[in-house]
Structure formats: C-alpha cells, structure tokens
Amino acid sequence: MMLKGCNADLLKTLTQPRFSSKTKTPFGGISFVSCSSSKTTTTSTAASDLVITDTNKNSVSCGASGSNPAFSLADRLRLGSLLEDGLSYKENFIVRCYEVGINKTATVETMANLLQEVACNHAQSVGFSTDGFATTPTMRKMNLIWVTSQMHIEIYKYPAWGDVVEIETWCQSEGRIGTRRDWILKDFATGVVIGRATSKWVMMNLETRKLQKVNDDVRDEYLVFCPRTPRLAFPEENRVKRVPKLEDPAVYSKLGMVPRRADLDMNQHVNNVTYIGWVLESIPQEIIDTHELQKITLGYRQECQHDNTVDSLTSPEMTEEDVDKLQQTNGSVTGRSHETDTCQFLHILRLSGEGPELNRGRTEWRKKLAR
After folding, report:
1. For 98, what's the count of Cα atoms within 13 Å in the CB-facing half-sphere?
2. Which of 310 and 236 is assigned the larger pLDDT?
3. Which residues are catalytic?
4. Which range, 264-273, 322-331, 340-349, has the best average confidence (pLDDT)?
5. Measured CA distances, 203 to 46, 96, 144, 213, 247 (Å)
6. In a 10 Å sphere around its CB, with 0-12 CB exposed, 13-18 middle and 19+ buried, how is residue 113 labelled?
7. Which residues make Cβ contacts (< 8 Å) with residue 346, sequence separation at least 6?
8. Which of 121, 141, 288, 319 has the fewest Cβ atoms surrounding its Cβ within 10 A?
9. HSE-up (13 A, CA, CB side) for residue 15
10. Residue 40 predicted with pLDDT over 60
11. pLDDT per residue over 289-333, tens digit each?
C-alpha cells in the first residue's frame, strides 16, 4: 500500500500538517511518502508509527505516536485538531470536483456536509462515540441521540474546486433542553472569512423517538469541552430571526418527493442536509439562473422516515421595500424577484396531502457576480 499524492511543497502550502516517521520499522508492508522536505522519499514504516505534527501556531498535534492504540490511522492522517485550549476544533478540507455545482463552486449542501463532518470529527477527538453522531457515555446508556432543531448558514463566498476551506467549530450549552454548535469558515489561502453557521441540537430517545431534556450527567460530560464564556459565530445583534409560517397557497411547489435510501443516516431518519436540497427544489428556475444562496435558516419540526412522501412549498417573503414596490407596480413584485439584487423566500416542507410540517425555512439570495 502506498500513500500517494503527498507532494511536499503543495501539502505544506495548502494544509500545513506535515508527516514524519517516528521509526523506520517495517509493519504490514506499508510504504510511507515523507513530506518533511521538498525532496520526496519513500521509506517503510509502521501504520502505528505515523505521527502528524500540525505546524499551525494555534493548534496542537492531531495525531499521536504509535504507542497509543486509541488513535486510528484516520485520526493521524486527518487534517484537523483541537486548538491549544482544547475548547474548539479546526480542520482543513479540499473541495472535490463532485462537490461543486452549476456555478462551478461548492454547493450549499457540500458546505453543510462539511459542517457536519467537522462537528463529528470534533466529537471524536474528545472521545465521544462515532455510532450516534457524538453521543456521550451517558447518552449511550440511555439510548439517546442528538438531533438538529435549527440550522442557520451564511456563505459570503463559495469556494471552487480545489480550494482549501478551513473550518473551526465549538459547542456550548443552550438552556436546559439542548446544545448549540457554531462554525466559522475561512479561505485557507487568504485567511478571509467566507462563511459562518450556527445550530441548535436537542436529545431524542432512539426507541420512542421522543425528545428528552439534557440531564446534568450529559451536560457535565460535554461542558468540559466547551468555552467557559459564551462564544458566538454571529454577533449578538445579528441573531437569527424567527421564521414565520408560510401561508397557503404557496406560489411555487415541488410535490411528491420521496427519500432515497442514501438520504438516511445512522440515526435511522432522513439526514438534516437532505432537507436543504428539498427546500431548494421549489425555488423558481429564474432565481437559480440569476442568483446564488447567501443565507438559509431551517427549523426542524418533525423527523422524516424512509417511507414518507414530502412536498416542498415556497413563496417570496415580503419586506418593507417590497411593500413599497407593490404599491407602484400593481402587485407584480412577486414575478420580478429575479430582477432585484437580493430576494427572500419562505419555505415549508410537509408530508404530502396536507400533512404535518417537517421543516420551516427562510432563504436569502444575492445576484450572481459576472464571472
């Protein structure tokens, strides 16, 4: 087995972590490409002896020596680590070709998946379980899992294929019923913030599928890894606004969507990122052609199972500026959304046939820049 594609100059520039071999003892015939200098050499080394040293000044090693069997090969090769205070986690991701869309940039679903990935890696790095999205020991004993209750994402600039995105994440308590997780996304090459996100999570019993309050035992298990004072990705004055209910009849709709098997996650329901794609399915094509998504807020109200059928409903959200225009254009503001620099929509996902709400959302779109 050969670990390839480890050009030293490129890897150092893009991702910072550098590989070195603690020993040169053969183990399992694994060849290791050293990236500790601009000259590529191949040496035999044990998988358990691989050590990753993160040269970022704000972070510590994301790997460990082979003497600690608790660290897997994935742990040692992952381009992420806890920061020095141990209260947040940072990881770098290279945007792959299959993660970009029609705009030749990463899709919002890609960005949401990266947020979920770095959150799970953060939980793994502090010893939480991988079999239920970061469940603590007490949660596993009580058959509890975390589920998303709210997600808000803002993307200021979408990365392109081959760009490297640096994502930092941390979690903290959110009252007595849940937790909060925040993220900051940066262009690794420039250090410029390209996005922010925040979310709320609650506990659900895996068997009864009912929500449950976060008890003191669970809170004590994760609070030790949280910032001591509140730290918010968004300034307090930019708090996420409540999403109002979309009133029938909706202007746009996509009906009869059925979850694919690939949409289900290890918690045995449709993954929260799938809802984003469903919401966007009912956005009018003229908006997709002329605008790009800059903000999305989703409130998760009920889980979706594999045998459900879902309707996606969308209508433009009227702002004060829209009301003024409405008085000047004989009520045609709805049909002219694609002509404005920014526009907003309200969304509902519900079970087909006037069924209960699964999700309530808001999106904000900006005019695409000429490329």
Report:
1. 1
2. 310
3. 267, 269, 304
4. 340-349
5. 41, 33, 6, 7, 30
6. middle
7. 243, 244, 246, 314, 315, 316, 317, 361, 362
8. 141
9. 23
10. no
11. 999 999 999 999 998 999 999 999 999 998 766 655 655 655 554
Burial class (CB in 10 A: 0-12, 13-18, 19+), 232: middle
Amino acid making up residue 196: R
| Range 271-303 burial, b when 16+ CB lie within 10 A, else e | bbbbbbebbbbbbbeebbeebbbbbbbbbbebb
In the block, residue with structure tokens 């410029």: 192
Answer whether 360's CB lies under 8 Å from 246's CB.
yes
Strand, coil or helix: 124: helix
CB 206 within 8 A of CB 266: no
Q: Where are the alpha helices (DSSP H) in 308-370?
A: 320-328
Residues 199-226: what's their mean pLDDT? 88
Pairwise CA distance, residues 265 & 147, whole Å? 11
The arithmetic mean of pLDDT across residues 132-141, rounded, is: 81
Vertex 102: Cα angle to 91 and 264 (nearest 5)? 60
Q: What is the pLDDT of residues 153-169, one digit of tens each?
A: 999 999 999 999 999 99
How far is C-alpha 319 from the chain's CA centre?
Answer: 29
Question: Are 181 and 171 within 8 A, CB to CB?
Answer: yes
pLDDT, position 39: 40
| CA pair distance 50, 66, nearest whole angstrom | 7
And the tokens for 123?
A: 């939980």
Closest-CA residue to 210 (of 265, 142, 276): 142
Torsion-angle region of 28 (φ positive above 0: left; ψ -120 to 50: alpha; else: beta)? left
Q: Tokens 């999305």: give the residue.
A: 296
Q: Which two tokens stand for residue 292?
A: 């790009």
